[in-house]
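tmp note - NCS1 family nucleobase:cation symporter-1
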Amino acid sequence: MTSTAPPSPSPSPEPIPADPSDPSDRVELAAGAVPDDNRFVNADLLPVPLARRVWTTYNFTALWVGMAHNIPSWLLASGLVALGMDWKQAVLTIALANLIVLGPMLLTGHAGPKYGIPFPVLARASFGLRGANLPALIRAAVACAWFGIQTWIGGVGIFTLLGKVFGGWAEASEIGGQPWTLWLCFVLFWALELAIIYRGMDALRRFENWAAPFVIVGALVLLVWIAVKAGGFGPLLDQPSELGWGKDFWPVFFPSLMGMIAFWATLSLNIPDFTRFGAGQRAQIRGQSLGLPTTMTLFALLSVLVTSGSQAVYGKAVWDPVELVAHTDNVFGLLYALITVLVATISVNIAANVVSPAYDLANLAPKFINFRTGALITGVVGVVIMPWKLTETPELYIFTWLGLVGGLLGTVAGILIADYWIVRRTELDLADLYRPGGRYWYTGGWNWRAVAAFAVGGVLAVGGSHSKPGEGPFPSDGVIPFLKPLADYGWAVGLAASLLVYVALMAGVTTERRSGSAAR
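out:
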């Protein structure tokens, strides 16, 4: 990756503000303001210089189009149909979820163009220079799991489609319970992803720019194909809801809504990893507003229509698009679908699930881990934890995995938003985010108030987690039974609780809000 460290002429102790006429109010760290041998600094964690903050509205829109149009996103929408919703209920659920999660996405993303800092450095303002490793490692662990899920899905997609083209792949000798040809597809796909991200953020931006429209075309082709098979679009729209709009619908709707929010709750934390390259606030606000809710809703619509069509054609809802495409014997169609699967999965995986943990792991040990090393560690961990079982059923994927992740990440988001917008009014001391003993050192590098707020919000958000008998890892009456009623609203509960607790605890601290300082 190209170094994000600024050039080093004569040293200066203060940040350099942007041109006063610049409406984005961007700030750049002066050369020499932070010692190079600082144990909390490396080139990838330092602010992006103003000259390299060049991402435009199109770049952010393309980023989201590329990330939203992927197989797990498809599984979200088609999974809702498999759970009994009709196409209108599924699209409504996903559209509402993405409008809700856009709010914290824009709030945390504000620090990127203004200060040029990644997520783990922003977290230092609230958690402390050392304490920031807590939310960073939680985010990194989730990203590693997602990386494994996406890579496995991509590998299986390649295996399935090439098997249809060449035949005989599924009958290959097995290793670890799977055909060796499947493992080969998985490993080759894994290596391709790491090779692209190893080239850095500029390569990622260029890849997303052309990948985004390609994936949209692929999804539209699949829709036309299933419509032809079904005899028109009528059967796709006529599949009835198994839940109705009454008492059977709402117990599925609310946990599904939280699951849909949780799908991008990861990015609502580490979106500064991308917005730090933004040309200004307008670029990131317009780009994300155009890119996230609109494209996710469009993709959800395509997904549920195709899944409804599969129900009309095959008598059951085929919620996996790769499995659905495998029903055709057209070689050209299979190869086109194969390329689409490759592009779609790489597009989201390297952006959403490698960039963040690479920065997060670099924050853990800046002297020993840079962006590239962090990306490699992510790739290894994502395979070792064997996360492919999480997508075995819609219940396990949406309710258990996404529900648990959403509760914890919503808790972190509440603290970040409270600190940056309410406590500090968006004003940070840029140099002190890298200085031991500075404003954000608190007690030994930890802000116990943020840790306490995280503990309270986390327990309230996920303490009531429950599963139906035989369908998940939690007891049916909840881990903490009296918190079970809150479990279906985990993300919202975690965000609201941690925000309120953090603001209350910080109210007793002498804070110079406009200068961004806090008592240690």
